[in-house]
């Protein structure tokens, strides 16, 4: 899928909001500036967040709870995680039981993390567009429109 503008990334996030449920992981992978946070912000907006979601780069985990959003969400940025073991301290697997995890930089945990995550990889193209590739696990096959 080609995302022609930053607004297209935001719209994709808004569309994802209709598909997600507690227990899901949406993994957003790609280089700095690729649009990961734009997708996350669109998703949070469509879930009811009225203010712009800050990037969780420094906090690492930014929680959102009802009534601010329609379901509990943890927006996670693992950019500053240097080793997968560090993420264990965040308690993400436990929190996932009743929350949606939106994870930027999931590759910091290694390829084996969250085998059932909807993995969206973004690549930046020379013309300013982004190419999005989705790895769609079985748990998402009936929800992801491109399968």
TrEMBL record:
Belongs to the TsaE family. Keywords: ATP-binding, Cytoplasm, Magnesium, Metal-binding, Nucleotide-binding, tRNA processing. InterPro entries: P-loop_NTPase, T6A_TsaE. It comes from Stakelama saccharophila. Its main location: cytoplasm. NCBIfam families: T6A_YjeE. It is found in: Cytoplasm. This is tRNA threonylcarbamoyladenosine biosynthesis protein TsaE.
